[in-house]
Design goal:
mainly alpha; 2 domains; two-stranded parallel ribbon; 2 strands; globular
Length: about 110
């Protein structure tokens, strides 16, 4: 996530101050901040998700990390059909997610 935010800044779509604030907020969610616990659960990826990521790279021409993100979204949707929306700003990942029948944010 920090890489995506800083990339958005490098491309002129996000001011450096805004990128810095968003990265800090993400890190607080990820690691916890002061008295608050982390808001994300970090977990390993099962072999099936890695297999799906490999398929997605071939099918959609997306980068490995993007394929892992999309394969994880597919796994989440399989566990809970209400998990049918993907948030991303990368054009190729958005196209791949749409092709995999996800709604997109923004």
């Amino acid at each position: 996530m920090p890489a995506a935010l800083w990339r958005k800044h490098r491309e002129g779509g996000l001011a450096a101050e805004a990128a810095s604030v968003l990265v800090a907020e993400f890190e607080a969610d990820y690691f916890g901040d002061g008295g608050e616990q982390q808001r994300f659960a970090v977990m390993g990826l099962p072999a099936g998700t890695l297999d799906d990521a490999a398929r997605l790279v071939a099918a959609h021409g997306i980068r490995a990390y993007d394929a892992l993100q999309l394969a994880s979204a597919i796994a989440a949707r399989e566990a809970d059909a209400d998990c049918a929306t993907v948030a991303c700003s990368d054009r190729r990942l958005r196209q791949a997610a749409a092709a995999e029948a996800f709604s997109l944010l923004p």
